Amino acid sequence: MAKLKLSKQSLQKQRELLKLYRRLLPSLDLKRRQLTVETQKARQEHAAAQAALEELDTKIGAELPMLASPDMDLTGLVKKAPSAFLEANRQRSALKRLCTPDDVAPAVAFLASDRCSYMVGEFIYLSTF
After folding, report:
1. C-alpha angle with apex 121: 120 to 124, nearest 5 degrees?
2. Which whole number is the average pLDDT over 67-73?
């Protein structure tokens, strides 16, 4: 095992650092405790927001029994998007095309039919991404 040789200067530096650490430690501990409290508050707020979202989802499910959501369709605002944006998403799609109203229609027809009478509050994603 090699011997550790420390000069007086090196020892003095280490002592100075130790004094600094001892002086800073209480404030660092206080910051840690404050962060712990803030984290707990954030977790509680997140849980409350999530519960509210789930309640809203349940209420929407009661009003609008089913929803269909096409991922990237050629209707509405997406149709007016820049062509480079549409082309990039077209290439990213497994089918190498964007969703059309004809792709969405069967899902909507199913959701509106009696064959779907037991589904409530479901969200159907139509996507090839």
Report:
1. 105
2. 58
